Amino acid sequence: MTMALKVKPFKFEPFSRKQLQVLTWWLPNSPVRQKDILIADGAVRSGKTVSMSLAYVQWGMDEFDGENLGMAGKTIGSFRRNVLAPLKRMLKSLRYKVKEHRTENMLEISRRGRVNFFYMFGGKDERSQDLIQGITLAGMLFDEVALMPQSFVNQATARCSVEGAKLWFNCNPAGPYHWFKVDYLDKIIELNGIYLHFTMDDNLSLSARVKERYGRMYTGVFYKRYILGLWVMAEGVIYDMFSEEKHKVKTIPRLMNEWIAIDHGTGNPTAFLRQGFDGEKFYTAAEYYYSSKETGLQKTTGEYSNDLQAFTVNKRLPIIVDPNAKALIVQLRKDGFPVIEAENDVLPGIEHVGNLLNDGLYYIHERCINLLKEKSAYCWDVKAQQRGEDKPLKQQDHASDAERYGLYTMRYLIDAARQRKVKIPKAGRL
User: Fold this and answer.
1) Is residue 373 in some structural domain?
2) Which long-range contacts (CB under 8 A, 24 or more apart) does 154-159 make?
């Protein structure tokens, strides 16, 4: 299916010095024109994506005619939302002609008699490398490359065999041992590349008030990475913004929406959390916690289903379960529970829960003793960090994992409430 893109023109704001460097490094009179790679990292909302995506298309259209070029985000959906939406408005304003071939995930872009084909890819996991095999590319743009697996990036860069091909990378920082930091950023000179570090001051469209608001949104490692733009270790307690005095409550208000979030273990503990949303804030109201190691008796999925029936007091609440708990999901669906497979991306989920705590939008009832206890024990795995991975230490994490599944999967409720369209999705995968 081919469709012309009908979009509103883009209102350009003045570009900062670093944005102008991105927009001009490849031009004939540039002293760095012969470089092969551009890496732009740094803070959120710092103007990296807008300048990178526009410059990439301008470069491709000036340098090539009739060639294939690639563009990638973590998923095609996120790429369309975060990159393509503003990009197509900018291109329209600059009189480029753009046709989108949605079934092929491709943009056909033309200007001044030249036509090139920009293919979109998602680099979500190790299987993503299969999607890009076989194509020959004249260039590749990676948006949020630190969220992609190395195998996908290696496969994509290997496809760039057209003479004059260049690689364009942008991202927010991760840990100092992340594969991209080690293999690309630390070797920028050997790779014949350019490195630009962005802060929010490099986005001239942001007011001081907006920058201050973003600074309040994050704490701990996320503040250092997303606001200061540093490649730093995730160490210590994950939710360092949590305070029992502030976040532990004795009563729960009337909830507009309720659901049960589950982290299931066979040898490890299983946790059920009853959570809800009152139209403004999120709450964990009650917990079920069973450890076979402590009791010496391991429960079957059928027994957990019976326990869940008692825990929900026969209410037909949505049940949010880790998608990896296949056997439990099968059992619960067999027993008539409306199961939703959780969105279980670890780092975005942790970031979301941390933001809710930091902004005073999430509270825990005092009866949830295991969840409250884990708040001081839910820590980053330092050994995983040394392998370039951000993940929690796998101990005293079961209630916290269930908490994350529920709150991250139901995060849309905040925006829905603001639009006065609050509703629970049907059972299934969100």
Assistant:
1) yes
2) 154/129, 155/129, 156/70, 156/72, 156/121, 156/123, 156/129, 156/132, 159/70, 159/132, 159/133, 159/135
